[in-house]
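note to self — DONT lose this again. spent like an hour looking for the file last time. sequence + predicted structure for the chain T wanted, 188 res
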Amino acid sequence: MASTSDIRNGLCIRYNHDIFKIIEFLHVKPGKGPAFVRTKLKSVTSGKVIDNTFSAGHKIDEVRVETHKFQFLYNDAEGYHLMNQEDYSQIALQETAIDRPDLLKEGDVVTVIINSEDGAPLSVEMPQTVILEVTATEPGVKGNTATNATKPATVETGAQVMVPLFINEGDKIKIETAKGTYKERVKE
């Protein structure tokens, strides 16, 4: 058993007869009254996100997990197919297990969190950033770059990302996967 002091991002816990992954947490110590921990939990089975508050010192049931590197192969009606980098075994996961499936392209390596007790895959952690090519965007209007203006762009995986006006089709951009936002243009 763990307590609220052990809470960290990515921790998997058993709560309300389901397994949840902690996405965000904040230790709050108000001026009067006891301290507590405000959390955002994501169900690894359904993908549903809930807010929950634990009082300080509350015991939580931690789920023991292992992490393995998997390479994304393809997706179809059965799900997203991944191959283990160590033993080349393959698994198929549902879209809800992946944080940002729209930013995943074939050949990308991701970290899969697996329950140590039964060997079931729980969730997929994307790399912090991915580099994708812009396939469609409107051309920027000359002289309209004084402000932080943005425009929608479609990348090679089909995802929509807001980018600055100077980004054109064919440019490669770095995208922050946690928020799905543009980070920088990549020169080759």
